[in-house]
Amino acid sequence: MKDELSVDLFAEVKRLVGKVCWYVSTGGAASTTFELAIGERIPREFAVPNVAHSGEFRKFDGEFGLFVWCAWRLDGTDGPLTSWDDVDENASRLLDTLAGQKITNVKVEPPSWDLTIAFDRGCKLKVFCDHVIGDPSSDGNWDLSMPDKAIYIGASSRCKIEYRN
Predict the structure, then answer these.
(1) Which of 64-73, 95-104, 131-140 has the lowest mean pLDDT?
(2) Whole-model pTM over 0.85
(3) C-alpha distances in angstroms, 131 versus 30, 103, 112, 128?
């Protein structure tokens, strides 16, 4: 039987289906950690000052923002394309191909909360929650931000939904 948190998490993540990824933020000091801007463009209260981002991303936030801090792999129709362990330039270039693609399916696998997102051109982004209790490189695995709430998937299967005012 699923607990209330699982049901809420599944419902929120399923809201991504049918939405388009319109920007991918990769590289820099964050290495192969990345963010996908998904759905409607929402004007930011303050523009992002980092000129490495597009003007659009500097002015607008995504209706959904998926941040990935843990191990991941991007698969194409014929097999793996890139992963968190690839050189930054290749990982960034291939993740950038997700911009303009529509999400066709989303799957979350408890209790680890691994995430798989399928896109309309045959790509699948697979997120592996590998940060566990102890001394992980990050206390987060992936986050999904929305205007009214945020989902945090942390080390060792921790899951939290934070509602905003």
Answers:
(1) 131-140
(2) yes
(3) 16, 26, 10, 9
